Amino acid sequence: MSIRRKTNPLFGLIILAAALIVLARTLGLLPETVFDLILRAAPVLLVLVGAAFLLQDRLPFSGLIALLLSAVVVAVIGLTAYSTREGQTREDTRQPIEQAIAPEITLLRIRISALATGVDILSGEAGRVTGEFLGSVDNRVDVRYEQLGDNSATLTLRETEPDEFPRLEAVGRGTLRLTLPVGVPLDVELLGQDGGVVLNMSGTSLERLNVNTRRGEVVVTLPEYEPLFSEQNELLGTLTTQQGDLTLFIPATVAARLELDRGNSGFDPQHDPNVYNYLVVGDVLESREINTAAITVRYAVVVPAGRIRVEVPG
Predict the structure, then answer these.
(1) Of 126, 127, 160, which Cα lies nearest the Cα of 143?
(2) Among 72-86, 165-179, 235-249, 281-295, which stretch is predicted with the lowest mean pLDDT?
(3) Helix (H) or strand (E) holding 72
């Protein structure tokens, strides 16, 4: 009488999966980042095989249980590794940024699109934009400068999207530091996904400012400057942080009207009542000197989940 040998189909599945992975990589169907993750998870096969041996003949569906156990281990290892790296500031890539601005330019538009990157901007020298991007190995900033026939120009800085499944080495926070030229009117727009924003526009000729970041603290210092290309009482921009606090430093000589959208945050705006009136109807902070000041500005402020603070710089 022959004895039927018990076999575990799990080992056949492992061999089949390995063959399919090699084939997909050979045909170029498997992204590099996914293959990198598979290689990092390869030691878990030892856990899978060991669990299969230990559970064999002891529990029904032992192979399936071992497979599920291994999947949980892989998920925990992957999530831990990525979550640890994504909070770290990376300096693997150092990219200098410099762009000359012709003296005949009458309006310079700055368009910034950032990912998980903190952005620091302040005033610099006349006639040029300078700065540096620090980030992970796969991240860069595409810089494009276009001068138009009406003596205006647009400088676009766009952080390139990483792969859909980034390598572990490519995960982390970046930093973009810029200095903007003085003496030329500026129209600044910043879109961010995840990162703090510090915009010290003191000394600049700021015409318009739009900030929209998904998550991160935003700090903006407005200049002592009367916009030239806007009608009186025209909205000069919207300052938004979906998940974070926003702090505005406004010079005493500048009278501001701030139209608030606080969502469901429940936080009252923080301000000096001797400098600003809070108008409950309309949810507006308005300077007490709004009708007499030489410089007036109007902005919308959207902070649905954080605090709004307005201060006069010392």
Answers:
(1) 160
(2) 72-86
(3) helix 62-86
Give the long-range contacts of residues 79-83, CB within 8 A, separation 24 or more.
81/40, 81/168, 82/168, 82/171
Q: Are strands 218-221 and 246-249 parallel, antiparallel or unpaired?
A: parallel
Residues 255 and 82: their CA atoms lie apart, in Å, by 46
Task: State the pLDDT at residue 1.
Answer: 46
| End-to-end Cα separation, the chain, in angstroms | 97
**Distance separating alpha carbons of residues 151 and 128, to the nearest angstrom:** 16
pLDDT of residue 12: 62
Instruction: Check pLDDT > 70 for residue 174.
Output: yes
189 burial (CB, 10 Å; 0-12 / 13-18 / 19+) is middle
Rounded to whole angstroms, the Cα distance separating 281 from 130 reads 43
How many percent of the chain have pLDDT more than 70? 69
Taken as a whole, the chain contains a residue count of: 314
User: What backbone torsions phi and psi does residue 218 show, to the nearest 5 degrees?
Assistant: -125, 130
With residue 302 as reference, give the H or E element that holds it. Answer: strand 295-302
